[in-house]
Write a structure and sequence with these properties.
Blueprint lengths: L3 E4 L2 E4 L9 E4 L2 E4 L8 H6 L6 E4 L2 E4 L5 H15 L17 H4 L12 H10 L7 H8 L12 H12 L27 E2 L13 H13 L12 H11 L10 E2 L3 E3 L4
Parallel strand pairs: 7-8
Antiparallel strand pairs: 1-2, 2-3, 3-6, 4-5, 6-9
Length: about 260
């Protein structure tokens, strides 16, 4: 029987009794939307001191990224479609589960070399889904002690250091980096993570002219003022997401699942 705990306004639940499957209820709130690119330079100048905010509804998010052990169980039940040797190239590139033999020796490490399609299939098999970009960024903004850690210089410094010097070696176990305000582990510092709408980054629907402005704005990210440095790590995430295709697999790209509150 699943147990329910109340913790700092967040609800911790387990649907299977396995700690790795725990979901934490994330309360509703707002997130700074630096990815909502202005449609013109005039609009950018007008709003340069105030980033737009996007409302995020309450939802559930996995406490940890999906582990090798969890994905191995998924493959036992779905290997015909999602196994390393059987998956269609329509759903994953040639690097899919590239280090699977090595990964199986570290069952508590996060699963990586997973395509967006495979990540979605895993979540759907558990009656869940991938988090949206808004949801992921909302939770990722929380530091250990604050809902919004964007004003915490040390927190931001740690994030940028990890982004600047990723090292390819054996990934540590989930739950080994840090736990944020909501009780969610390893939102930064362990792996990159898929979001459901990863390919919507920097899209405003204004076609060619808008696309040109987007590129100029992003290329200027390296010259952000002191007051905007809190956004630089987010720009790096958006650049990474923008480079991806759904079939791509990367040695340090994994995922975790979410569930809408209305889906309970």
């Amino acid at each position: 029987m699943a147990l329910t705990f109340i913790w700092i306004g967040a609800l911790l639940i387990s649907f299977s009794g396995n700690a790795a499957d725990e979901l934490i209820r994330i309360p509703s709130g707002e997130v700074k939307a630096i990815w909502l690119v202005p449609k013109s330079k005039e609009e950018n100048n007008k709003n340069k001191n105030e980033l737009p905010r996007v409302k995020v509804k309450a939802f559930y998010l996995m406490k940890y990224p999906v582990t090798v052990q969890q994905f191995a169980q998924f493959l036992k039940n779905n290997g015909k479609d999602w196994g390393k040797a059987s998956i269609s190239r329509l759903f994953a590139d040639a690097s899919y589960l590239e280090d699977w033999k090595t990964q199986k020796k570290n069952l508590k490490s996060p699963i990586t070399n997973i395509s967006w399609f495979a990540a979605r299939a895993y979540c759907e098999s558990h009656q869940m889904r991938l988090p949206t970009m808004n949801e992921w960024e909302y939770v990722a903004a929380a530091s250990e002690k604050n809902i919004d850690g964007n004003g915490d210089a040390l927190f931001l410094k740690r994030i940028l250091e990890w982004y600047g010097e990723p090292k390819k070696n054996k990934l540590p176990a989930v739950g080994s980096i840090y736990k944020n305000f909501y009780g969610i582990w390893d939102m930064h510092g362990l792996i990159w993570e898929w979001v459901d709408d990863f390919n919507s980054t920097f899209v405003t629907g204004e076609s060619r002219e808008d696309s040109s402005f987007n590129k100029k704005m992003f290329c200027g990210a390296g010259a952000l003022s002191l007051g905007d440095r809190e956004n630089y790590a987010a720009y790096m995430r958006f650049a990474f997401r923008s480079s991806l295709k759904g079939t791509n697999t990367v040695w340090n790209l994994g995922f975790r699942c979410a569930r809408s509150q209305a889906d309970e």
